[in-house]
Structures are given as C-alpha cells and as structure tokens.
Amino acid sequence: MEQPAGRPTATAFVPGHVTGFFSAHPDPDPGAAGSRGAGIALSDGVTITVTPGSGTRLNGEAVDIAPVETVVDRLGVAASVDAETPLPIGAGFGVSGAVALGTALAANAAFDCGKTENELVEVAHCAEVEAGTGLGDVVAQARGGLPIRLEPGGPRHGALDGLPARPRVEYVTFGELSTETVLSGDTDRLSAAGEDALDELLAEPTVDQFINTSREFAADAGLLTDDVSEAISAVETAGGQAAMAMLGRTVFAIGTGLSDAGYEPSVCRVDTAGGRLADCDE
Predict the structure, then answer these.
(1) Nearest residue to 79 via CA among 56, 53, 100, 98
(2) Residues of 254-280 as b/e, b for ≥16 C-beta within 10 angstroms?
(3) Which ranges of the chain does DSSP label H, i.e. alpha helix?
C-alpha cells in the first residue's frame, strides 16, 4: 500500500500456524495462560502494514479483530492496520494471532515504541488470550519451524522447543470451526488428550510421530468432522499421513499426501524464521 511521503510505515510478515494437538491452560494472568502442544509454522502467512490512522482491514475488507485493537491500545499508538493473506479465515491457521503479532512488530517500528521482541510477543499473546481467539498461536508464530510448546504462556512464562525438520506441507480446508466456541466450553477431554499426545511426541520427537499423535488427538478429543475424517482416511489409503488443524475444518499432510489422495491442495513449506519485520520507512 503506497503511503504519502513523510508518514511512518512499517510492514511485518507472520507465518500461518497449524496446531496438531494441544491442551488448554487457563490462568487469571493472560501472560501465564496458554496451551501446550505442537504445530507447524507455514510459509503461507500474513503480511501486515501499519500506518498512522485507525481501523483494520483484512484482504481489503474492514474488519474488527479484538486482539489487534488491544495491541494498538497497549502500545499507545493511533494505527491503521492493513493485513493481506492467502490463508482461509477461521479454518485453523492462526490468522488472528498473526495479525496481532504483525501489528505489534510493525507498530513498534513505525512509531518507535522501543519494545523488545519478547515484549511485543507478550503483548500480542495476552491480547489473543483475553479475546478468546487463541492460546498458543502467537508464541509458535514468533518462533517458526515446527514448534513444541512445552509450557503454556507468553515469553515471561512459556517454554518452547521444536522438531529439527523442514517438510513440504499440503492442506485443504472444508470450512470454519469457531475457536471461541471450543475454548469457552468444557476442555477437560481435549486437554487430557493433548497431554497424552505431547508425552508421546517428546518420547519420539519425529515428524511421523507428530502427525500420528495429531491424528489420534483429534479423534480422542471428539473434534473430527465427517469431511475431515474422510480426507485423512483417503490420505492414509494412498500411503500418506494427515491430521486435522486445530481449530478448523482443515486437513494438513506432509509431503504429497493430499495430492496422492486425489485432492488439489494448497502447497507451502515450513517457515523457519518466525514473525519478523519486513521493511520500515521512516
């Protein structure tokens, strides 16, 4: 988006993020609240441009994204946020978290807020938790790669590791699944399944085990829909591996699993760098 000369502007890129499994860990302190689990940061992500002004636009449409409003307010700036993404919205790709984190990174650069990276991640993470739109996407998107969330929370409380792998990723989406609805309900069954899955992955930290435990988690947590289950079964029949993205009616596969099963998936790679500033013109 072209800006008039002399106006501060900055752009950030934040990878999309699919979670394979997780356990929910609420806390009165939003910085301590979050999730444990594992996922993949995707090269398909969100590009966020911040300029002086107000309002948020996503793919050219005016939208209300509560975490973004919170981030802008806590940084004490009057910012216009313009986000662009090829990712489906509300389908388990962490778009809300990506826009929140990208807004924090870009606003800090454009308005010289003087925050460190961890401080900006903390602001975005807390904004997501308070809005009920996510528990672990922000910290995973900030790290990149195949992040494992060992302990819940933002940078002040959480702990992260990752799988040292960079596979090709395919995905297909069948529709939305409300994160707010799932997270506001009874998450005991979901969290118990997520804790078991994390134990299994840490005992055998491989991509194959990640996909296997993610697939088992979706079934054990009672989150599978018919279309998602059918796609996962088709990939397995074709000799591949696939799982469900949390939280959305999305199936992701490693390698050519969905292509081999006859689908026409979107294809991307693992984003290793995590959320970062793209450019800044003072």
Answers:
(1) 53
(2) bbbbbbbbebebbebebbeebbebbeb
(3) 66-75, 95-110, 117-131, 137-143, 179-184, 188-203, 207-220, 226-237, 257-260
Domains of the chain with bracketed CATH: 1-277 (3.30.230.10)
Which of the two residues, 183 and 82, has the higher pLDDT score?
Answer: 82
The structure tokens listed for 148 are 């494992």
What token pair was written down for 233? 């079964």
The predicted-structure confidence for 48-104, as pLDDT tens digits, reads as follows: 999 999 999 999 999 999 999 999 999 999 999 999 999 999 899 999 999 999 999
Question: What pTM was computed for the model?
Answer: 0.93
Q: Which of 277, 273, 206 is nearest to 20 (CA)?
A: 206
- Return the exposure string of 223-253: e unless at least 16 CB atoms fall within 10 Å of the residue's CB, then b: bbeeebeebbebbeebebbbbbbbbbbbbbb
The pLDDT of 167-179, averaged and rounded, is 86
**Which residues, 6 or more positions from 219, have their beta carbon under 8 angstroms from its beta carbon?**
none
Q: State how beta strands 79-84 and 56-58 pair.
A: parallel
Q: At what angle do helices 188-203 and 207-220 cross, to 10 degrees?
A: 160
Going from the C-alpha of 203 to that of each of 84, 191, 192, 198, 199, the distances in angstroms are: 38, 18, 17, 9, 6
Q: Which of 164, 251, 266, 161 is nearest to 211 (CA)?
A: 251
User: How far is Cα 128 from Cα 30, in angstroms, rounded to an integer?
Assistant: 9
Lowest pLDDT segment from 205-214, 236-245, 273-282: 273-282
